[in-house]
Write a structure and sequence with these properties.
The chain has 8 helices and 2 strands, in the order αββααααααα. The chain is mainly α. The chain has 2 domains: 58 residues, no CATH class; 112 residues, no CATH class. Strands 1-2 form a two-stranded antiparallel sheet. Helix 7 packs antiparallel against helix 8. The longest helix is centred in the last third of the chain and has 21 residues. The protein is globular, with a radius of gyration of 19 Å.
């Protein structure tokens, strides 16, 4: 069962609070994770109430190193899939063939380097880990596959190292949260 995303939870919580509905905290998730629920009206933690509960599980994410060392945990993707088949790298980029023709597993081993090409490699290393986090049912990852695909396609299409690295930093921050896998 996929957990709700924080943005949705905040919006739904706000709506429920405005409507006078009680929002509490408690245990949720069939995967055994404990999500804390706070009663926003009394500011007390309530583990017993199961009515009007909205899960607020902490976000999780695993690093590229985790995913290249735990191939058996990949869900929905294979190590031999090509980057371009998953991310649809913009073909107008000069080094498109050098990156798009690499596998997801190879991308997890990218080292980076100078210039836009190096930044693209750094981004794709983080993006593949993000993709695997988003696909795994037991990882409560902030971004969806669509989010990651958009970040990759947009940042690479700019051809600007600083933008590519900014978007990589967003994904990398989520990849370093850890998980219970």
């Amino acid at each position: 069962m996929k957990k709700l995303k924080l943005i949705l939870v905040i919006s739904l919580t706000s709506i429920l609070l405005l409507s006078g509905t009680l929002v509490v905290s408690g245990m949720v998730d069939g995967g055994g994770k404990i999500c804390y629920w706070k009663n926003h009206l009394t500011n007390q933690v309530d583990y017993n109430s199961k009515q009007n509960v909205i899960p607020l599980c902490p976000y999780e994410g695993n690093t590229p190193g985790f995913w290249k060392n735990h191939l058996n945990l990949w869900v929905g993707y294979t190590t031999d899939q090509l980057i371009d088949d998953v991310f649809d790298i913009p073909s107008g980029i000069i080094w498109y063939i050098l990156i798009g023709s690499k596998t997801l597993l190879q991308a997890l081993n990218f080292k980076g380097g100078p210039g836009v090409f190096g930044a693209a490699r750094i981004l794709l290393r983080a993006a593949v880990a993000g993709l695997l986090n988003a696909a795994h049912p037991d990882v409560n990852y902030l971004y969806t596959y669509g989010d990651i695909q958009w970040l990759v396609k947009y940042s690479l299409s700019t051809g600007k190292r600083n933008i590519i690295l900014q978007k990589e930093a967003l994904i990398d921050a989520q990849n370093n949260l850890g998980s219970d896998l």
